[in-house]
């Protein structure tokens, strides 16, 4: 049982380049999330999904797009990367039911030059 | 809107001493509260949660947390700290009306346990 996995682990982009971060979970969770972590700011929610084919904006969605074509996968896209998007990105998943905790992936460290 | 405050950026404690990491929250409805730990270059790991019932919640690695509704606090505690407890700790809150099980996180507190 791998839990939540993220690809890639590290990436360096130049300003204006695009990329996609992949998140996969094998726990059959309905809910999935993308966060960014910046020093002193905790985790901030970018986008989330409550089921296959559905997505919604979180706290800081600008500059990002997401897709959830399959229940087990949640993709985060940067169409035109900016230095302000330099961060560590975490994916998480959760079962339905308010009492359930979120399970996190190991993170992707992204640097935009 | 819900929010979480962790007033201390860093907490220093000697090994064997008790530790407390503070968390206060603001939420409109009944709160669901969580603590997570992050070790260097790793994702967040769930420690414990408060949903309802007993105000003292026990979790992983000997940690516990005390829910105080009147003070809107959910402080993380451990009777005897270990050097291996050194990590970044996050408190998070969920409003019971929250569709999608979203969490709002505090800014994190770095715990340093010295031998």
What do you see in this structure?
The complex is a heterodimer of chains A (113) and B (115). The model of chain A has no long low-confidence stretch (mean pLDDT 95). Chain A has no helices and eleven strands. Chain A has 113 residues and is mainly beta. Chain B has strands spanning 3-5, 10-14, 19-21, 24-26, 31-38, 44-50, 56-58, 64-68, 73-78, 87-95, 104-105, 109-114. In chain B, the strands form three sheets. In chain B, strands 2, 5, 6, 10, 11 and 12 form a six-stranded mixed beta sheet that branches. A four-stranded antiparallel beta sheet of chain B has the order 3-9-8-7, with no helix packed on it. In chain B, strands 1-4 form a two-stranded antiparallel sheet. The N and C termini of chain B lie far apart (41 Å). Classes of the chains: A mainly beta (113), B mainly beta (115). Chains A and B meet through strand 5, strand 9 and strand 10 of A and strand 5 and strand 6 of B.
Short key terms for the protein model shown above:
heterodimer; A: 113 residues; mainly beta; 7-stranded mixed beta sheet; 4-stranded antiparallel beta sheet; 0% helix; 52% strand; B: 115 residues; 6-stranded mixed beta sheet
Task: Tell me briefly what this model is.
Chain A is mainly β and 113 residues long. Chain A has no helices and 11 strands. In chain B, strands 2, 5, 6, 10, 11 and 12 form a 6-stranded mixed β-sheet that branches. Chain B has a 4-stranded antiparallel β-sheet with strand order 3-9-8-7, with no helix packed on it. Chain B has a two-stranded antiparallel ribbon with strand order 1-4.
């Amino acid at each position: 049982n791998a839990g939540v996995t993220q690809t890639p682990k590290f990436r360096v982009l130049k300003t204006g380049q695009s990329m996609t971060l992949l998140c996969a979970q094998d726990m059959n969770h309905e809910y999935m999330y993308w966060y960014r972590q910046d020093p002193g700011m905790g985790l901030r929610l970018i986008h989330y999904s409550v089921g296959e084919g559905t997505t919604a904006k979180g706290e800081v969605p600008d500059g990002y797009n997401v897709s959830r074509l399959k229940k087990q996968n949640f993709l985060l896209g940067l169409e035109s990367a900016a230095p302000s998007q330099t961060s560590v990105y975490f994916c998480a998943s959760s079962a339905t039911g308010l009492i359930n905790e979120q399970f996190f992936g190991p993170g992707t460290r992204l640097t935009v030059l | 809107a819900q929010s979480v405050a962790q007033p201390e950026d860093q907490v220093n404690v000697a090994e064997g001493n008790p530790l407390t990491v503070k968390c206060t929250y603001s939420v409109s409805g009944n709160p669901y509260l969580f603590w997570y730990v992050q070790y260097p270059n790793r994702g967040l790991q769930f420690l414990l949660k408060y949903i309802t019932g007993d105000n003292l919640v026990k979790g992983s690695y000997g940690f516990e947390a005390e829910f105080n509704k009147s003070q809107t606090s959910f402080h993380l505690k451990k009777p005897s700290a270990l050097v291996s407890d050194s990590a970044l700790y996050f408190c998070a809150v969920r409003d019971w009306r929250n569709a999608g099980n979203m969490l709002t996180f505090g800014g994190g507190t770095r715990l340093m346990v010295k031998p």
